[in-house]
Amino acid sequence: MDTTKIEKNFKKLTSSNKIFESVLMIGNASGDFNFTREYKRDIDTPMLMASTTKLLTTTCIYALVQEGKLNLKDELSNYLSKEEISGLHVFKGKEYTFELTIEHLLSQTSGLPDFYLTGTKPVFSKVKDRDFSYSFEEELEWIKHMKARFIPGTKRKAYYSDVNFDLLGKIIEAANASTLQEAYEKYIFSPLNLKHTYLANTESDFIPHTYYKDQRLYRPLFIRSCYASGGGVTTARELMIFIKAFWKGELFDKTFFSKQAQSNPLQMSFYPIHYMGGYMKITASYPFGKKYTLVGHSGSTGAFAFYCLEKDLFIVGDVSQIASPSTGVRLAMRTVLAAE
């Protein structure tokens, strides 16, 4: 493969005054093609997964469904108490909390609001200024004081919200009778022999830094609070191992993917990203050129892990910049288009 254009794109990205560290890895399913570029870090440097963590949570859900411990049609109220979730989803005066299913949460079609970027006091506006922690119970209270976006399962509608996956984390714990870290270990880390990937949840867990513009951010309290929606830490090398196993069916029956009829577009701020059963779907193309499909996930820190179906390429990396998380997505898209 001619990697000249890929190298040019990476050099252009890292020569800008907006990116201070970055890493990019590309590989194919057979393993006979590997390409790596590093900028002030390497493929074994710990990195924040941010929302790429959602792929770990998705893996556990599908593994538990495969074992018969869960059903995607199960209602949220089967796993969390009525007192805990009552009032979570109210749309135009009517409560839909007890109609929410695992499938709604997994596909971001619950209609639950987002506390990270929206609301009267978005979490993002606070975390870039200071470190703080929050509990799952506090997260639910934030959501209860916000307006739901639509009725669960409304056709052609999806709304990205971290609470969907944090609720899935609690469902995993209930179904597996374990902590979420133990579930990750059982279904992902141990089978793949990942030694440097973990859910950050204790004071002893190392928390990597990231950047907001030119400010180096270290937010251990916040990262340890992010739980099933964004609390993962990994390296580019191990993220590549994981994303290959995820799409090749090594962790669960990959026919789960073929059973998903359609993707749904997320809110406009996420354009052009669509969402499916626990992962993002993006179309990359030059004007009037051939289109390529990327499936996987990105995170608010600029971490990403995608698979291009048409070219059989896996692409992982990080741009470490929360002021512009879409930069990681654009790097993945440009990498696919440049791969010849």
From TrEMBL:
UniProt domain Beta-lactamase-related: residue ranges = 44-316
Q: Which PANTHER family match?
A: BETA-LACTAMASE-RELATED
This chain belongs to the protein called: CubicO group peptidase, beta-lactamase class C family
Which species is this UniProt entry from?
Answer: Alkalibacterium subtropicum
Taxonomy of the source species:
Bacteria, Bacillati, Bacillota, Bacilli, Lactobacillales
Recorded hits in Pfam families, A to Z, give: Beta-lactamase
Identify the InterPro entries for this entry.
Answer: Beta-lactam-related, Beta-lactam/transpept-like, Diverse_Enzym_Activities
